[in-house]
Amino acid sequence: MVGDKNISNNDSKNKSTGLYSGESWLKTCIEGILFVSEGIVKARDISSVLEITEKKVYEIIELLEKEYIDENRGFILKRVAGGFRLYSNPALSEILIKFIKSNIRAHLSQAALETLAIISYRQPVTRTQVAEIRGVRTDSVILTLVDKGLIKESGKLKEPGNPILYKITDRFLELLGIESLKDLPPLDDIKENEEDNRILE
């Protein structure tokens, strides 16, 4: 943890009460830890790093929870699976989903988007099966999607050559802002919309 060398006396290092004694600075430290963490943070881990009791950690967590709600911040603090994690404010769900979808489209080719759609609705599938549906080879696209963490290997097909099966990842669901593939629109609805578009054209 790197801090300003010129912090106030209230926030200075104090061996008797922990690494940092000031409540304001403890809030800053814990918020920073939660911000950089990619998963759930346990109270014992925060306690160990800041050299304070777990009871003190929970006191600071309660202050942060209230502060985020009272100030209507863009994120909230939730207690999950025995730990803590920052989440986006539920009130922003529609805005964030719109942003994430546009962000995915901006960074993925049309081929990648088509491949993701096929895997989402047909998983688990092999490269060959995806290629048969798209009508073109997909080796490089598959590798790109694996590298971006949007799809992953899901075993092998029990047939000659034992081709690798692929499925979408939780990261992909997170970017789309959905809980599971059940939240995707039914294929029948998509086909009907495509047919309506053809008629209009």
Q: Round the Cα radius of gyration to an integer and report it.
A: 24 Å
* Oligomerization status of the protein chains: single chain
Give the CATH class of the largest domain: Mainly Alpha
Helix content: 40-55%
- CATH level 4 superfamily of the largest domain: Winged helix-like DNA-binding domain superfamily/Winged helix DNA-binding domain
Widest β-sheet, arrangement of strands? 1-2
SSE order, one letter for each helix or strand:
HHHEEHHHHEEHH
CATH domain fold name of the largest domain: Arc Repressor Mutant, subunit A
Largest sheet: number of strands, sense, barrel closure = 2 strands, antiparallel
Tell me the β content: 5-15%
Shape: elongated
Q: Main traits of this protein?
A:
52% helix; 201 residues; disordered N terminus; Arc Repressor Mutant, subunit A; mainly alpha
Task: Please give a structural write-up.
The chain is mainly alpha-helical and 201 residues long. The protein folds into two domains: 9-88, Arc Repressor Mutant, subunit A; 93-200, Arc Repressor Mutant, subunit A (Orthogonal Bundle). 52% of the residues lie in helices and 11% in strands. It has nine helices and four strands, in the order αααββααααββαα. It has helices spanning 23-36, 43-50, 54-70, 93-107, 110-122, 127-134, 139-147, 170-176, 187-200; strands spanning 75-80, 83-88, 151-156, 164-168. The strands form two sheets. Strands 1-2 form a two-stranded antiparallel sheet. The protein has a two-stranded antiparallel sheet with strand order 3-4. A hairpin with a 2-residue loop joins strand 1 and strand 2 (83-88). Helix 1 packs across helix 3 (54-70) and helix 5 packs across helix 7 (139-147). The longest helix is centred in the N-terminal third of the chain and has 17 residues, at 54-70. Mean pLDDT is 78; it is low at 1-17 and 189-201.
